[in-house]
Design a protein that fits this description.
Blueprint (H helix, E strand, L loop, with lengths): L4 E8 L6 H11 L6 H6 L9 E9 L2 E8 L8 H9 L8 E7 L2 H4 L8 H9 L1 E2 L3 E6 L6 H13 L4 E4 L8 H22 L4 E3 L1 E2 L3 H13 L4 E4 L1 H4 L1 H11 L2 E4 L13 E3 L1 H11 L4 E5 L9 H12 L9 E5 L7 H8 L4 E3 L2 H6 L3 H15 L3 E2 L29 E2 L2 E2 L5 E3 L8 E9 L8 E13 L9 E7 L2 E5 L2 E5 L4 E4 L5 E4 L6 E8 L9
Parallel strand pairs: 4-12, 6-7, 6-15, 7-8, 9-10, 10-11, 11-13, 13-14
Antiparallel strand pairs: 1-3, 1-4, 2-3, 5-16, 17-18, 19-20, 20-21, 21-27, 22-25, 22-27, 23-24, 23-26
Length: about 525
C-alpha cells in the first residue's frame, strides 16, 4: 500500500548538469530549502527531505524522475500540498510535473466532489448519454437578454447552463438581479417541460465577497456554481464546496501557462484532473482537442481519464471539453470520450439555428442517435403527498425580516416545483413557503402558489380555513358548488371542510398568496 506522495517530473538537464544532482536539488528545494550539508548538520533526514525513487532516460538530457515525500509535510491541506508539489521549482526551467500518486492517508482528508457523475445524473434524471451544456454570453447583454437565452436553452432540453466566466458584475445588487432573473427563467422552463436543467452562475469576486455571492445563490435554490480556481484560489473552491454542498463546475482560466511548454509546468491531467477533483470540482472544463487552444487528443484523453479513475472515496467528476465542437463533430466526440462527458458547446450551438430552443433540441437528437439514453424523473425530492398544499416543500433558509421581491421570486426562499403524476391530484404548481416555517412566532403561515397554464390544485377539504389573495393573472376558485373568478387583488375565503380547487384556464401564470393556520390538519380527499 502506498504510504508516501509520489511525484513524477520530466526534467531537462542544461549545460551538462548531472541528473542525479538535479533531482536531489528538487527534493531539497521542495522541502527544507537549504544546502544538503546544512540539513545534515541539523539532523534532518529522509523523513522530511524527498527521496529519489527512480530516474528513467527519455531522450538526450531528458529524464523522468520520481520523488516520494512524507505526506505530513503537506499539513494535509491544499495550499501546502501545492507548495510541496511545485512551489519554488516553478521558478526554475526544465521541470514539469507529469504524474502524481497519492496515499489514502492523504486523500482521506479531502471530501472531493459533492455530487460527482452519478449525483448530477440523479438530479437531472438523465443516464446513458453525454450531457449538453452551453454558456450565457456574450458579455454586454442585459440580464433580461441573458435570462432569455437561459430560458430557451432549458426549454429546448439542455441539461446544464453556465454563465460565461467573463460575466462579472460591478456590484452585489447587479449580481443578485442577474442571478435572480436567470434562475427564474430556468425554473419557468423546467416547470413547463418537466426537466431539471441546472443553472451555474459565475462566482468571481473579491475574496471578502465570495462567500456572500455563493450564499445568495444557495438562498435562491441554485444547485451549482461556476468558479475559476486559479482566479479565486484553489482552497477557496474547496471551502465553498464543502460549506454550501453545491455542484462545482471549475473553469481553467489562468492555468494555461502550465501546459504550453513540454519542459515546464504541471500537466493538464494532474492539474485540471486530480488536483481540481480534490478541491471539489464535480465538473472540470478544459479546452477540447481541435479547438482554438491547441490541446492534443492525448492531452484531453489523459485528463478525461484522470477525472474518472478510482481515487479511494473521491467521486468521479464529469469531464467537460469545450471549444472546437460543432453539430458535425458530435460523432467523433462520442468515439473519443464516451457517455460520461459534458459537451460544453457555446458559439456553435448559438449559431446553429436562429431559434436556440430548436438548435438545442437538434443537438440532443443527434446525441441520442449515438447513445442509448435512459431517463428517470429528476430528483426533486418532493413527491410523496397527495395534496399540492401538503407536499414536502423547500424550507431551507432562515428567519428573515425582509424578503426582497423580484419577478415573483423572494430572496431567501426557494420555490418548490410540483408536476402531476398518477398518484397526485394536481398539475403544474410552484409553491413558496414565505413565512411561518423559519422560526417566526406567528399563528399563521404565508405562502405563494403559482399555477401554470391548464394547471390546477388538488380537489380537497380540511378543518382549517384559509384566505386567498390573487396577485398575478386570473384564476378560478371552485368552492363547493360555486366557481369564482379571481382577478389581481381579489380576496377569497375558504371555510372549514369546504371542498375546493384552484384552476388556471388562461395562457398566463395564475399566482396567489395563501394564508393558513400554522398548526393545521392535513387535507382530505372529498
Amino acid at each position: 500500500m502506498l504510504k508516501k506522495i509520489e511525484i513524477t517530473y520530466r526534467v531537462k538537464c542544461y549545460h551538462g548538469e548531472d541528473v542525479q544532482r538535479l533531482v536531489r536539488k528538487i527534493a531539497l528545494e521542495q522541502t527544507v530549502e537549504v544546502p544538503e550539508e546544512l540539513a545534515a548538520i541539523r539532523g534532518i533526514g529522509d523523513t522530511i527531505i524527498g527521496k529519489t525513487e527512480s530516474i528513467t532516460p527519455l531522450d538526450e538530457n531528458l529524464y523522468l524522475a520520481t520523488i516520494s515525500y512524507n505526506p505530513e509535510i503537506t499539513a494535509y491541506q491544499l495550499p501546502q500540498f501545492l507548495n510541496v508539489l511545485y512551489g519554488n521549482i516553478s521558478l526554475l526551467n526544465g521541470i514539469k510535473i507529469v504524474d502524481i500518486k497519492l496515499p489514502e492517508c492523504f486523500i482521506e482528508k479531502f471530501r472531493g466532489p459533492n455530487f460527482g457523475i452519478e449525483g448530477i445524473r440523479k438530479l437531472l434524471g438523465v443516464y446513458g448519454r453525454p450531457l449538453l451544456s452551453t454558456a450565457l454570453k456574450p458579455m454586454g447583454l442585459s440580464p433580461a437578454e441573458l435570462a432569455e437565452i437561459a430560458y430557451n436553452f432549458a426549454h429546448g432540453g439542455g441539461d446544464l447552463i453556465k454563465d460565461d466566466h467573463g460575466l462579472v458584475d460591478r456590484s452585489f445588487d447587479k449580481f443578485k438581479q442577474r442571478i435572480s432573473l436567470c434562475t427564474r427563467a430556468v425554473t419557468k422552463a423546467n416547470f413547463e417541460t418537466g426537466k431539471n436543467t441546472i443553472y451555474f452562475p459565475n462566482i468571481c469576486a473579491q475574496a471578502d465577497m465570495l462567500e456572500r455571492c455563493v450564499s445568495f445563490a444557495a438562498d435562491e435554490g441554485i444547485r451549482g456554481i461556476l468558479i475559476s480556481p486559479f482566479l479565486v484560489g484553489i482552497d477557496s473552491v474547496r471551502y465553498l464546496s464543502e460549506k454550501f454542498n453545491m455542484i462545482v463546475m471549475s473553469h481553467p482560466a489562468l492555468t494555461g501557462t502550465h501546459f504550453h511548454d513540454l519542459n515546464h509546468g504541471i500537466s493538464i491531467d494532474v492539474l485540471l484532473g486530480t488536483i481540481f477533483r480534490l478541491a471539489g470540482a464535480d465538473i472540470s472544463i478544459y479546452p477540447n482537442t481541435g479547438g482554438r487552444f491547441g490541446f492534443t487528443q492525448s492531452d484531453c484523453k489523459k485528463l478525461h481519464d484522470a477525472l474518472r479513475h478510482p481515487l479511494y472515496h473521491i467521486k468521479p467528476s464529469f469531464p467537460a471539453p469545450a471549444g472546437g465542437m460543432s453539430f458535425d463533430s458530435i460523432t467523433d466526440m462520442a468515439a473519443l470520450y464516451g457517455s460520461d462527458t459534458v459537451y460544453l458547446i457555446g458559439g456553435a450551438l448559438h449559431l446553429y439555428n436562429k431559434s436556440l430552443r430548436k438548435g438545442t433540441a437538434d443537438f440532443l437528437i443527434k446525441i441520442r442517435e449515438i447513445f442509448d439514453e435512459k431517463t428517470t424523473p429528476p430528483d426533486l425530492s418532493s413527491n410523496s403527498a397527495h395534496s399540492s398544499c401538503d407536499m414536502t416543500a423547500n424550507t431551507q433558509g432562515e428567519l428573515l425580516c425582509h424578503l426582497p421581491f423580484n419577478s415573483f421570486l423572494w430572496h431567501g426562499r426557494i420555490p418548490t416545483v410540483y408536476k402531476a403524476s398518477e398518484h397526485q391530484d394536481f398539475k403544474d404548481i410552484i409553491r413558496h413557503e414565505l413565512t411561518g416555517q423559519y422560526g417566526e412566532q406567528t399563528n399563521f403561515d404565508l405562502r405563494y402558489f403559482e399555477i401554470a397554464e391548464k394547471g390546477y390544485s388538488s380537489l380537497e377539504k380540511h378543518q382549517h380555513e384559509h384566505v386567498i389573495i390573487c396577485v398575478r393573472g386570473v384564476g378560478q376558485l371552485i368552492s363547493g358548488e360555486d366557481k369564482i373568478t379571481l382577478n389581481p387583488l381579489d380576496v377569497a375565503y375558504v371555510p372549514p371542510m369546504q371542498v375546493h380547487r384552484l384552476i388556471n384556464e388562461t395562457a398566463e401564470p395564475f399566482g396567489f398568496f395563501c394564508i393558513v393556520d400554522h398548526i393545521r390538519d392535513k387535507p382530505q380527499k372529498p
